[in-house]
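Quick start: load a record and inspect it. Here is ChsH2 C-terminal OB-fold domain-containing protein:
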Amino acid sequence: MAALSILTCSACGRLDAGPRDMCPACAGALTSMPVEGAGTLVSWTVIRRPPKSFREHGAYCIAIVDLDAGVRITGRLRNTPAHAALGERVSLVGCQDRIPVFALDR
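Running the structure step on this input writes:
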């Protein structure tokens, strides 16, 4: 399984998807920490009219995922599923233009 890098506060331990310069809770220093890309699908939608910078990709799906590590992130959902259910398990399959790409664990 692919891994992601998230931020953790050295002072209070809060996890954050970033990017940030300091912890939003206590202003502590943040360090990068690798985590596995497994999680639960919280929400998703299909972007049918993408902005100019994404037009060559056509329609694509974005998703909000609660990672098992305890942080919520936004990324893409591969293969634009017609019947993805909230609460389904997803796994990170890579990154495209620094954006995490997930696939359903079906």
